[in-house]
Amino acid sequence: MSLGLRSDIAGVHEMAEESRLQRIAPEELPNLLTQLHDRQATELILIGPEVELFTLLGDWPDEFQGCTVYQLSSVLSELPHELLRLYWLQSLTLWSLDLNDADATAIAEHLNQLTSLDLSINKVTDRGAQVISRCLHQLTSLDLGNRIETSALNWYSSYPNNEITVTGAQTIAEHLGKLSSLKLDNNRIENSGAQAIAEHLSQLTSLDLSNNQIDEIGAQAIAEHLSQLTSLDLSNNQID
Hints:
With 240 residues, the chain is α/β, with parallel strands linked by helices.
């Protein structure tokens, strides 16, 4: 066996030890959350049963590398109150769990120390976005989009999706000035929402507003105001 091959295999083993997918039943979740509370966990990644995350660890999203990803074996009926006691969390990812505005409100009101929140493919509307914006002032990363796209998957849920419009986008822009990353793909923020984001969130380095009914007016505002962007997705809009 060549030295290079040994090195590659060692790297895969090391990644496997650092990252893993653990499937749990909904009734096991409260106990898991209690354990995370006792360990003063700073990160939680929990995904719904519909998400098909490949087992090839090298293809996982970058933010999942080195983490344990918990996947529910069936649909969650309600948000466990134990989640709201994870006061040390800095990063919370809850993909495709059928969460609504009431759930988003509970998270925002109890976990206001969060710096990263990802509620991709849930049922959060402008109402939930407004509470998030007014409570989570430390956020540097927010994802209320409706697409999960990585080298491992490109996936949409059959559940009702997040529905963020101009109102939600404007509230996010006005209250979350620390954001460096914002994803609102596949919503309905239109030009007015894009303009508000461009005018208020000057620190953004990553922005995904794909499929949001934006035309040249919104694109021009982004080009004029967001000079620090290193990643921008405006695909599937109305830009010629």
